[in-house]
Design brief:
Elements lengths: L1 H8 L2 H4 L7 H23 L7 H8 L2 H4 L2 H9 L8 H34 L12 H14 L8 H20 L6 H22 L6 H12 L7 H20 L1 H8 L2 H6 L4 H23 L5 H13 L3 H25 L8 H19 L7
Helix pairs in contact: 3-4, 3-7, 3-17, 4-7, 7-12, 7-15, 7-16, 7-17, 8-9, 8-10, 8-11, 8-15, 9-10, 9-15, 12-15, 16-17, 17-18
């Protein structure tokens, strides 16, 4: 135990270029990859056309698909698909995109939650709790219901909505500074107001299909996603994750406290809001393709932190892999638990995250003054 603590206490510079990669982080990464692979195979195996796990694996690893540049051009850039077998067509064109989108959503929400927890120095913080999810969701619904011509810009509009919500939360919570309790309470207030506005938008939609899509956004659903959603989310995910990984040092400094960070030469407020912007972008990328999937940004960073420690270089890498594992498994449950009826994945994550949130609140010894 003492040796493990000493290992976790070393900085990357002290441990060598890759000294921060320890056994606990390797376990989280490899375990998460294994969970995603197994859950993904289960996801692509069952449906109206069912197949065995072995058949699903052969379809996923079909060389005729994997090494055909025309296939990847069609999937990643749009276009006409070349000929492929029936199983490969079902797996690659219908079912596999859902697994990929679930993985991207999990990555974004986990990274976003980890950043918010450092920025606010509050392990109860997450995009959902701080109102960012409801703000981004409201922007998405406004686009779908009122400004449908702006649909190609969903991630940008969702980011603006999430940023607006976070600024409101910060302004409400500010009283010569903030506290964990005030941030959480302000997040509840903003989420409630934005949630009411979302409900009100339903009455402006004349098309039943738009209303059904709006309901799917507010509950968090991966039903019907395809390669278009992959194309929307992938570049924003890569960008936000790269920024998050590059910001690990700044996040570690913020955890030391505002006074210590200033003594080290950090412009705390500028760094805090820049990192909050990265968190908003990551959360918005997830919301723009899956709607409001609750509590992933709360649960995943906390679970990874208990396994790999609080060093954000390890924590962020762990979140990048553990987030997809949680959402992919949750989506398997959402799709297959009550088959043929599919429930929104946000319902499943809420059933897991709600009790976990209460556990964290009970665990906190000092929640701070209001």
């Amino acid at each position: 135990m003492a040796s493990d603590n000493r290992t976790r206490g070393r900085t990357p510079a002290e441990s060598g270029r890759f000294g921060w990669i320890d056994g606990s982080l390797a376990t989280v990464v490899l375990g998460s990859v294994a969970v995603v692979v197994v859950a993904g195979l289960v996801q692509v195996s069952f449906g109206t056309y069912s197949m065995t796990l072995v058949e699903a694996w052969h379809a996923v690893s079909d060389p005729a698909v994997l090494f055909d540049p025309r296939v990847w051009q069609a999937y990643l850039l749009g276009g006409e698909l070349p000929e492929m077998s029936k199983q490969s067509l079902i797996v690659w064109n219908i079912r596999l995109p859902r697994v990929i989108v679930a993985a991207l959503v999990g990555t974004n929400l986990a990274v976003s939650g980890a950043i918010f927890q450092a920025v606010t120095r509050n392990e109860l913080a997450s995009p959902y709790v701080l109102g960012v999810s409801s703000g981004a969701g409201l922007a998405v619904l406004l686009t779908l219901v009122v400004f449908s011509g702006l649909a190609p810009f969903l991630p940008i509009l969702a980011s603006l909505g999430g940023a607006t919500a976070f600024l409101l939360v910060y302004l409400i919570a500010w009283k010569g500074g903030t506290s964990p309790v005030r941030l959480v309470l302000a997040g509840v207030i903003v989420s409630t107001v934005f949630w009411s506005l979302q409900r009100g938008l339903f009455y402006l939609a004349d098309d039943l299909g738009v209303v059904q899509s709006a309901i799917a956004w507010t509950t968090g659903s991966l039903t019907g996603v395809d390669w278009e959603q992959v194309r929307i989310a992938l570049p924003w995910t890569a960008f936000s994750v790269a920024l998050a990984l590059a910001s690990a040092r700044q996040l570690n400094v913020l955890l030391l406290g505002e006074r210590t960070a200033k003594s080290l030469g950090m412009s705390v407020e500028k760094v805090r809001f820049a990192l909050a912007g990265v968190a908003v972008l990551a959360a918005s990328a997830a919301i723009s393709v899956a709607g409001i999937v609750s509590f992933v940004g709360l649960v995943v960073p906390h679970m990874v932190r208990t396994l790999v420690g609080s060093d954000y270089k390890r924590l962020m890498v762990g979140c990048v892999f553990a987030g997809p594992a949680l959402v992919v498994v949750a989506d398997v449950g959402a799709r297959l638990a009550l088959a043929p009826t599919q429930i929104p994945v946000g319902v499943v994550t809420g059933l897991v995250g709600g009790p976990y949130f209460l556990y964290l609140m009970r665990k906190q010894q000092d929640m701070g003054e209001v």
